[in-house]
């Protein structure tokens, strides 16, 4: 059953005895692009980085290595975007600003170079949630950097592969080592070790501070990661070698400790968004590792799945799919 438009109904709709969640039924962001495959570009190993792109099939939790994607140079601690048709891997690793940014076409998994950035050596990133309206119109056209060790950031346009410099006094002014970010169709959020949750509104392209209630429930540390979902919440690991992580509820802008923790006290996890579940794919717990946990969105449960074929801490996650 698909419903497009408005339903004003105060009762409970059932299908084969199960209650229907109308918020998800009418949500074109959830249904407009079905995410089927994840990617992790690069990753940290032996004080260097991988030049390969690791793949994961969401239906089977099966890892692989792209036969076509060659990053040429090692990548770790960079930013990332996913458009309808391409994934983007932004250089990190405290190198020269904007050095060696790459684009990977989801259709072929071939990698090409794109323009340089102006700011930030280990940036965080947010982006428009992407998908298709019921009539086939695409939505979602930009990504944004943050945590560039200043008030400066970039706006990245997907269809031209170009960066445009910007500045905002309310943006987090540190770097990725103490900042994490997540997003949905309309907003991006960040949480940093200054204890401030910030929100970027895509319609106005401005940052502002928020006052979550309840506020973050886990002590903030280094290399935290946010796993976005299409279900009105994100999973926020506050950093450090701990099992637990939080849920951030988008509508109420509130935190709560997730009832289930990781199966390993990991951080630096590439957070790979899927359609109905996501992954903390690899990480660091004193050593770089391939340990992978799957988080089920409908129950918030955590399931240990097969390890990745290589250690993936500090890799660049991407996600692709097809129109529903």
Unreliable sequence segments: 1-7, 20-25
Helix-and-strand structural type = mainly beta
Content of β-strand: 35-45%
CATH topology-level fold name: Neuraminidase
Helical run tally: 2
Overall domain count:
1
**In CATH, what is the homologous superfamily?**
Kelch-type beta propeller
- Main pleated-sheet profile: 5 strands, antiparallel
Q: Helical percent range?
A: under 10%
Task: Please provide a written account of the structure.
The longest helix is centred in the first third of the chain and has 4 residues. The protein is mainly β and 324 residues long. Strands 3, 4, 5, 6 and 29 form a 5-stranded antiparallel β-sheet that branches. Strand 4 and strand 5 form a beta hairpin. The N terminus is likely disordered. The protein has a single domain, classed as Neuraminidase (6 Propeller). It is built from 2 helices and 29 strands.
Task: List key phrases describing it.
324 residues; mainly beta; Neuraminidase; five-stranded antiparallel β-sheet; four-stranded antiparallel β-sheet; 2 helices; globular
Lay out the secondary structure:
Layout: E1 14-15, E2 18-19, H1 22-25, H2 28-31, E3 34-41, E4 44-45, E5 48-57, E6 62-75, E7 80-82, E8 86-89, E9 102-105, E10 111-113, E11 124-127, E12 131-132, E13 138-139, E14 142-146, E15 152-157, E16 162-167, E17 179-183, E18 187-192, E19 197-201, E20 206-209, E21 225-228, E22 233-237, E23 246-249, E24 254-257, E25 271-272, E26 277-284, E27 288-296, E28 302-305, E29 316-322
Antiparallel strand pairs: 1-2, 3-5, 3-29, 4-5, 5-6, 7-8, 8-9, 9-10, 11-14, 12-13, 14-15, 15-16, 17-18, 18-19, 19-20, 21-22, 22-23, 23-24, 25-26, 26-27, 27-28
